[in-house]
Protein 1
Amino acid sequence: MAGSAAGSPELTIEERLVRITAGSLTIEGNLNLPAGARAVVLFSHGSGSSRHSSRNRHVARVLNEATLATLLIDLLSAEEEEIERYTAHLRFDIGLLAERLVHATDWLAQEPDTKHLRIGYFGASTGAAAALVAAAERPRKVGAIVSRGGRPDLAGAALVRVDAPTLLIVGGNDLQVIELNRAALARLRCEKKLVIIPGATHLFEEPGALDEVARLAREWFQRHLI
């Protein structure tokens, strides 16, 4: 399906539902390919979220308008999501989530329309930890990482193996997560930066907060992927 980005009527974006084999199951995703895409950003959503997250979709639109392709995927299958409603344990299985991201990364590197594009990760909450672990597993394929309100501390020993330039974005009122991000930042050995958005809470629901996240992410990916 083709459409035009808001504010950019001349920009054509192809929207495609994709299915990616991840071990013994298939995960679904939404691939948006702007005409003349210069890189692709793979989204790693957080606890209790999905590829339909309004916050991630908002950020993805901003990236698409900057001619960055985006792939939003469900890290859990429909059956796993159903179990997760009652147990809430898989969302903290960072190893499992990272493994799914690695499969999606390898798919992007082989898919004809994206194999020539450099890959970035945009992670939120526990998805940020999964992105860091996956980046450590695929250092030659992942060129940049952005974390929104993430839990990079949950990446554990993988932090010191991350080569991709990493931007950590945290809300100024998200005090506990700020400290966890500072601790993770100290362990990262790559190019790195922590940005705290004043007045923002964990979900960046305050007016203008998510727009600032999207702007920072766009600039980070443009700098390191293009």
Protein 2
Amino acid sequence: MADAPPAPPLLLASTSPQRRAILEQLHIPFEVVTPRYEEETSEIADAVELVRRHACAKVRSVARDADERPVLGVDTAVVLEGVIFGKPSSAAEAEQMLEELSGKTHVVVSGLCLRTLAWEDVEHEATRVTFRELTPRELGTYVATSEWEGRAGAYAIQGRGASLVRCIEGDYLNVVGLPAALLVRILAERFAGVYGFG
């Protein structure tokens, strides 16, 4: 019996090292391409609509590079009481964000778009994250690590940011940067057995 052909690598429209690491962890073959899309974040926008729109725009910006490969785009936002927290531009802004998140539950929302020449799936995932009450010293110590740089909500749960968190409800990997359970479900439905799922 002939071996099954290798799974076609996903084309990941992202430069995020976290997303690459999660795909490697799941043994999903992929290649990276930088999306040709500039994100615009509005603090009063609907977060679900925003991340879904950004994920699709990332995918469509690289679609001509795809040939017949499936293209994956993901966008993630941190939302507290209806306000979207983007990536802080300074240490002072990072500390302010973390102070606002302290002792409260926020939601990490990711939009995911998976597209082929024949179809496009657009879905989203939400994970609730509750922070401990943080002291000014803890806030200052964390900000001094610079781990907040380039992170929506000013923290990285897979790093020292884990020390800020009291509990989470939902997909942990979604908080890291890619809603893995959602992606696996779509791959199992659309490519049963091809990527090892379904």
